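Hi support team,

I'm filing this because I wasn't sure whether my run with adenosine-5'-diphosphate finished correctly. The job status page said complete, but I'd like someone to confirm that the output block is well-formed before I use it downstream. Pasting the exact inputs I used:
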Amino acid sequence: MLALNIQDLTKVYANGHEALKGISLSIKPGEFFGLLGPNGAGKTTTIGILVSLVRKTSGMVDIFGHNIDKDLAAAKACIGLVPQEFNFNSFEKAIDILINEAGYYGIPRAIAKERGEYYLEKLGLYAKRFSTARQLSGGMKRRLMIARALVHEPKLLVLDEPTAGVDVELRRLIWSFLEELNANGRTIILTTHYLEEAEKLCSRLAFIQHGKIIQEGKTSELLAGLNEEAFVLDVAASSKAELHCPAYQIRWLNDEQLEVTVSRGTHLNKLFEYLTTQDIAVYSMRNRVNRLEELFVRLTQTEDSK
Ligand code: ADP
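And here is everything the job wrote out:
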């Protein structure tokens, strides 16, 4: 049985906008899946349909074998959503937010309290359990949303941009928490703009654009499909002369930086030999962008030029 089975999903909003143009996705139990795409691609719409915040126009959605048209309550019990926007009662205490949420799923209060405290502890919020949501910082609210999505122990956790606007330290904490959940068997789907996040966490990815999936596969295989790599070199040179060297595309970004593009598998020795002959000293070097970002830019450009 699949954790999530989406077939030919479409959504036309009331204003006639076609947000999803026939999306199909199969996600197995235990996967950590990333849904990537530019703003307006249809990610939030897709997620909204899973939790019945958005009504689909056509297509089929099964969550752990429960069809959302035939058995919505059972489907919803399998899923925990962390939406982008904070949407809790800001005058309620953190622990009460969790206990009340569990109540919607018929979980007895004593169990809900124990679980709520467990997740608050795991997410570094235990000391804040009696604070009202409005007394929490943005990062604490984000963690409270994650705890709330978990109190009914859903098999599938869906997070919409979980680390948007979150500082580096908290992002790391959220990442390791999600990795631990996934290692313990929880299926996780996230949408993200941080390609580094997708590369680090997700074993499989789908790129979505203009309401269609334009590429899908294992993260490692998608990255292996990239056949060019670009580097930025910090250099010192007496002149900014044009540079030509077979197998490398070299261009000046400014007086002190070169961009070099090479095919995969091409070594860089000759590049350094050449730069030496041109009296150019290299002080440091890094990938131009994260590799997934490179792929993302290429895919979306190819699709836009069609
Ligand atoms: P993403 O999450 O990938 O940024 P969304 O799913 O939010 O994308 O939006 C997909 C498209 O649908 C966008 O063009 C957006 O403007 C449009 N859209 C979203 N919600 C509505 C709505 N309620 N009514 C009309 N259009 C909408």
